[in-house]
Amino acid sequence: MLEIILIVVSVALIIVCLLQSGKTDGIVNALSGQNSNLFANQKERGADLVLTRITIVLGIAFFVLAILIRMKA
């Protein structure tokens, strides 16, 4: 039963990670020497904030389930 839940959490984690917006533009500007606000404090809002929180919860659930499965075996 835990294995099935782990598979569902894993697939959901992959999907949520793919839905998040990329942040590579700031890194490219920083490496190329262009003016960038890479280290500026930018707060996530709206859908980005929700996706980030879901990713954190799914990541924690993934590790907890993996540990529980390993302890059971």
TrEMBL record:
It comes from the Bacteria. The keyword rRNA-binding does not apply. The keyword Protein biosynthesis does not apply. Belongs to the SecG family. This is Protein-export membrane protein SecG. One of its GO terms (molecular function) is protein-transporting ATPase activity. Involved in protein export. Participates in an early event of protein translocation. The chain crosses the membrane at residues 50-69. One of its GO terms (biological process) is intracellular protein transmembrane transport. Keywords: Cell membrane, Membrane, Protein transport, Translocation, Transmembrane, Transmembrane helix, Transport. It is a multi-pass membrane protein. It comes from Eggerthia catenaformis OT 569 = DSM 20559. One of its GO terms (cellular component) is plasma membrane. It is found in: Cell membrane.
